[in-house]
Amino acid sequence: MKRSGLITTKIGMTRLYDDGGVAHPVTVLSVGDCAVIGNRTNEKNGYVANVLGIREAKAKHIAKPQAVAAEKAGVKPYRKIVEFRCTDDCVIPVGTALSASHFVAGQFVDVQATSKGKGFQGAMKRHNFGGKEATHGVLKAHRSLGGTGMREWPGRVLKGKKMSGQMGNETVTVQNLKVFGTDEAENLIFVEGAVPGSNGTFVLITDAVKKEQTNLPVPTSVKNSAEQTETKTETVAE
User: In terms of residue numbers, what domain contains 80?
Assistant: First the structure.
């Protein structure tokens, strides 16, 4: 069984207390208006996946192919669209609004986002180099990265050498973070620890691939907008 993930927005960090009074640093992720806008099938696409969108947008503010696809599918256009591979038993019907209760307290998740861009940085900050000595003949080169060249052969700097350059602004995945809890009324997920990216960044959250999980809602926990109540689908243990 492989469930779909969610697209969320990073709100920021705070602290929450457990029943024993111990403080836990958590990152607050907002599910918002995340919904299923399409499906991929083996017959048509060669694989199974749920297509999710978040942050409803006007058709004039998105790419024309996305606007046409949304119109054909009979759904609203969204700013951010992501596919999540899943198994046949975890396909979610198109138009389903997803909620924070898709994940449960105590389970482990993997999160993926674009890290903060730090611009051009030196080797010490970028790669955690120790730098040169402060004495013993070192002159005005305390934070330099040292020698990078070779001898006569190969006579060049090898590819992949850790040097100065742009830092951050890249896709980062953090695995095995624990879900502290959820706020179903505000549609928020509280994940213990730090999540890459600045506030407002889109964060993809999925079940941890390196942990065995049980008692998860399959394929998801759906909020009934008409009654403003939640109807959880069948819970299956792996």
Answer: 6-117+170-236
